[in-house]
Amino acid sequence: MPEDRRHIAVMFTDIVGYTALMGSDEDKAFDMLKRNHTIHETLIKKHNGTLIKEIGDGTLISFPLSSDAVRCAIEIQKECKEQNIPLKIGIHQGEMVIAGEDVLGDGVNIASRLQEASHEGCITISGRVYSDIKNKAGINTKYLGDKKLKGVDDPLKVYEVLCEEEILYTESKQQPLKSNKLLYFVIVGLVIIVAAILIWYNLPKQPDIVVEKSIAVIPFRNDSPDPENEYFCNGMMETILNHLVKVGDLKVMSRTDVEPFRNTSKSRKEIASELGVANILEGSVFKVGNNFRISIQLINPESGFHLWSNEYEGEYTEEIFTIQSNIAKEVAAALKAVITPEEEQKIENIPTENLEAYEYYLKGEEAFWQVWKTFSISILDESIKYYEKAIDLDSDFSLAYAGLGRAYWMLSEFAPAYEKPELYEKQRSILNKAIELDPYNGWAYGAMWEVNIMWDWDSSAARRNLDMAIKLAPNDFRVLEANFYLELKLGHCDQLKSIMESIKRLDDHVEHPLSRWNLLIMLCQKQFAEIAQVGNDYWVENIDLHLHSWWALFWSYLIVGDYNNVNKVIEHHFKRSRVYYAFNSMLKAKEGNKDVAVAMYDSLKTSYSDYVPNEVLATIQAAMGNKKEMYEYLNKAIEAREDLNDFMWFPFIPELIDCEDDAEFQRIKREIWIPRE
After folding, report:
1. Which residues pair with 145 in a beta bridge?
2. Kind and range of the H or E element at 15?
């Protein structure tokens, strides 16, 4: 292949959130891609560019001059914004290798990394491109600093090209007015003010705008040159969110609910509508060395009004905690929410005076958040090390103890039965320390219930700890969720609906027929036929349901004998889960394929012997009709102190094998069932 070297400008473009859009609306995604292609094709030709190749929703383009590339990018962004196409662009200039119809070399990689570092609607260029275009008419830029890009050895000077609306904004903020223009604008301004006052006095008076007190804190944007600072950016977002949660007069969406909107192409109005909130809090965080800047704004998407905004910057000191508290209080004030003195005290509480410990705590929180998405043991171990490092640096850091206790709970979920006792006791000790250090740490009480119910089999202690957690953190979604599951495990079906009303303040999808809350209440009441009917009426193959909705559908279809749908649920959702063989074994047993059921059961015992609870093996034996073996495994589960009151398995054994009136079954129920009183 013939090769030659030339100095050219290379541009990468990419549609933000295209992959997610493909997953949710394929037709809309293809239409956007087609419009994007048409815009590029027309404007590339206009500015003497050459389309090298298209990579999915991205494009690689070359230009003989940097100015051609930048002017083309400005027009592309303008057209894309008009057509609601969320695009980001990166441009670099230098010596490239032309190999046939392709462009190769480090310069291509740099352009690609600049595009990745760019934000929706923005054009990011290298210092080399800036040197070529800095004196060109009609092109305005803003210096972003020296940034370390992935795969690029040395930090790179990076600039952002200002589009038309940004230029107007920047000029209005920064350009000094000449004295004659200043006088002119002052006179015009006074005339407008007088006219406005006269008009206002003659207008019929309107009532004050009512600001609904509901808010979603969507993931902040990391503007730091080092991508590794993502943990710090997310930490700022989550801390502010958790401060707002402490205000009982506000409805605040959980991080679980807002996380799907990270890097989304959806508008604020769409996000607010899907989350069921009136207001959006968004922001960006910039951190280099010991300096930081937080830019934040509160928006009402329906009206488009900015209700409040502010920017905070300075050196990274303990003042960061005051800034986080002030942001929460100012946002609450903008929404006209009442903060009680007790709530204000909680918000203003400084978690640690050791900033290095705080850094490790934030890294632990970020790693633990990734565990929920990946269920990775290695990431869980990483989060534990971060929490432990934070505690080493500050032995009085309550939040770090609470995070570590929660991580040990997750570790116990993965661990074989023989390791669980030590892990539960360690979790108990750590959480007790968190509460001792900070009696207002609501989540520490909320996490303790897992030890009480799963290891102690003490529902009274679990109830006491959850009541305290609810008192201290009435808006904490995790606490309300734990309260729901406690009553579910204890079989208090009537109380679940009232708890669901509290959850509804934070999750507007509660009442959907296939929501986990709705299905679990029905499951508690053993309304298996009704759940199966709901599944038939609403479930489609591509629907995204919570894990426990799938559990409810599995058990209901199995118990009513709809084995075709049981298989669909298993193959659709549990294909890569370790319960795959367990569920299939039960299905084959109920279908009458006992030989296949036994083979799967044997495979499960052999391959996952350290991880399969005895309760699961007991349930499979029940499905096979082997009552004697079922009781053997249930007693082994008691000896190992497994979570035998788990609603997913134990309560439905009588539906698999007739044993409700057996003395042995009643004895086991009494042993693990400690009444709420």
Report:
1. 158
2. strand 3-15
- Beta strand 123-126 with 279-288 is unpaired
Cβ–Cβ under 8 Å, residues 629 and 472: no
Cβ atoms 369, 234 nearer than 8 A: yes
Residue 116's pLDDT band, with cuts at 50, 70 and 90, is confident
CA 85, 87, 93, 94 dihedral sign is negative
Cα-only R_g, the chain: 30
For domain 214-350, the question of CATH label 3.40.50.10610 is answered with: yes
* Type and span of the H or E element at 124: strand 123-126
39, 45, 62, 128, 231 from 7: Cα distances, Å: 26, 19, 10, 11, 38
For residue 403, give the nearest of 364, 371, 440, 369 by alpha carbon: 364
Q: Find, among 286, 273, 257, the residue nearest to 477 by Cα.
A: 257
CATH topology of domain 3-170: Alpha-Beta Plaits (3.30.70)
End-to-end CA distance of the chain: 82
CA distance linking residue 479 with residue 483, whole number of Å: 6
**pLDDT over 60 at 85, yes or no:** yes
> Can you give the pLDDT at residue 512?
82
pLDDT at residue 256 in the model: 77
User: What distance in Å separates the CA atoms of residue 405 and residue 426, rounded to the nearest whole number?
Assistant: 8
505 has pLDDT over 60:
yes
Tell me: pLDDT of 572 over 90.
Answer: no
Each residue's pLDDT tens digit, 202-249: 544 444 444 588 899 999 999 988 888 899 999 999 999 989 988 888
- The gap from C-alpha 357 to its chain's centroid, in whole angstroms, comes to 24
Kindly list the domain boundaries of the chain, sorted by start residue: 3-170, 214-350, 352-438
Separation CA 160–CA 121 (nearest Å):
11
Cα angle 321, 326, 332; round to 5: 135
- The amino acid at residue 14 is D
* 3-state SS, residue 222: strand
Question: From CA 54, how far away is CA 12, in angstroms rounded?
Answer: 10
Query: What is the distance between the alpha carbons of residues 92 and 128, in angstroms, rounded to a whole number?
Result: 7
pLDDT in tens, 619-632: 999 999 999 999 99
As a CATH number, domain 352-438 is 1.25.40.10
Of 70, 143, 98, which Cα lies nearest the Cα of 7? 98
